[in-house]
# Entry
Amino acid sequence: MADSARQALKAALDQCEQHARILEQDLVLLPARFDAAAVVQLSDEGRRVMDQAAYRFMKLQDVLGEKVLPGLLSATLDPLPPESPFVQKLQRLERLGAIPSAQAWRVLREARNSLAHEYPQHPELQAAQWTVFVTAAGDLVSIWAAVKQFAASEAVPRDSV
# Structure
């Protein structure tokens, strides 16, 4: 792995660490489940925490998907061509043990896409969406932990990270 690629991977891993750490802190402040009453009664501070959690979720997912996962894949002894479809890369990473499930990544993408929709007139829909998001955020942090462990494992040559 070229020195510049190694440095880029290390920087991306550091970014993920920061996003995951702050996302975990946010998740501690949020309920695991929302109901319509919780949505209606959520304070401005609670909304700021939700906004920050959503931001960190998106940033963590972006850096993982755009930089870390492709970088780890190219650092292994089993890389794919750069033009390979992302789903194929996810399947290879799952087989290598870098991520627990390629399907889980797709579910996280769906949860992220649902964040774009707000239902101010339907707090029960908003509650369901927020509950799905909080669960997905916890799952993303778990995926990050698996990726971080893989990056530190013998599967990735020491001179790669």
